[in-house]
Amino acid sequence: MLTFDDFAKKWKIDPAPLKPVARRYPFRLHSYFEGLIHTNDDAIWKQAVPDAHELSDLSGFEDPLSEEKLSPVPDLVHRYPNRVLWLVSDRCALHCRFCTRKRRWAESRSPKNPPDLKPALDYIAAREQIVDVLLSGGDPLLLPEERLCEILSKLREIKHVQIIRIGSRVPCALPGVISPRLAAMLSQFHPLFVNIHFNHPLEVTAESGRACSILANAGIPLGSQTVLLRGVNDSETVLAELFHKLLSIRVRPYYLMQMDLTAGTAHFRTPVSTGLRILRTLRNRISGPAMPHFVIDLPGGRGKMALLPNMIREINDKEMIVENYTGQSCVYPLLEGEQEALKAEMAAR
């Protein structure tokens, strides 16, 4: 793992202006992902390297999805009636500078003193409506194998838990962690799915392809969640290449996500109309399985919404009014001057 000083020295940048950023939002980068950087400020660099905008941005929320408010017990988020999000790890292969959980980066616990599993397991076991558990963090695939196996085993002891999903960036950002032994352990707990975070074609390498093959050969369905990021992947050409490459390594593009309204990340944010335009342009130009859903995770923990014309009720100068999965009206703020482009995109669809 590289320190920020080591990284700055290697890339010949002055670390001093960015030290306050790294103190607030710690830098974490392994040599594998650093090796994907071609030039200063390219698409990989922007995702991993601190930026002064992270401190100057006064918009957004520390907890944009209200995960803390929706946590009935520590580290368990219960937003939807029949499924929960369980944050089982606080370690990542990479600190993505646009992360929705940047607020938790400085709270790393010692591996020798892991959190108690019992409160979350008791909560899930007591509620038969919970049939689907998503493990996230941090990254579950960075847990010691014995610990991850323990979590999966205990979930499988709860009869009403039918589906287990794991959200991970490890196959993309630290693929050497994925081994046949790990995949064999995971395969004991089917139906189990792994959703991987890929954002750019440069991340689809021989190593990441090999990691995905190991998982897929163990019978584990793989999907990708891509975050739409200004200056990283906000073009039809880049995303078409990414989605095609993902299919070639047996990863199904699942979500293209409008970036969460996290504090310190506004410099990554694209207009909503950009995602709509890109997918409209790509439709029928790339194969059907390569087309993801374009979704917004609504502020305040209102849930994910696939952005479709009939779910937008109103567009005005500062916001759009949308209908979430419960039929409730929700407000989503727009960038200045975005409303006309968004109206045009909705008309074009």
Detailed description of the structure:
This protein has helices at residues 4-11, 19-24, 31-34, 43-48, 53-56, 118-125, 145-156, 170-173, 180-186, 206-217, 236-248, 272-282, 339-348, and strands spanning 76-80, 83-87, 132-136, 163-168, 192-196, 222-228, 252-258, 293-298, 303-306, 312-315, 319-323, 329-333. The protein is globular and about 50 Å long. The N and C termini lie far apart (46 Å). The model has no long low-confidence stretch (mean pLDDT 94). By secondary structure, it is of the alpha/beta class. Helix 12 (272-282) runs parallel beside helix 13. It has a domain at 59-270: TIM Barrel. Strands 1-2-3-4-5-6-7-8-9 form a nine-stranded mixed beta sheet.
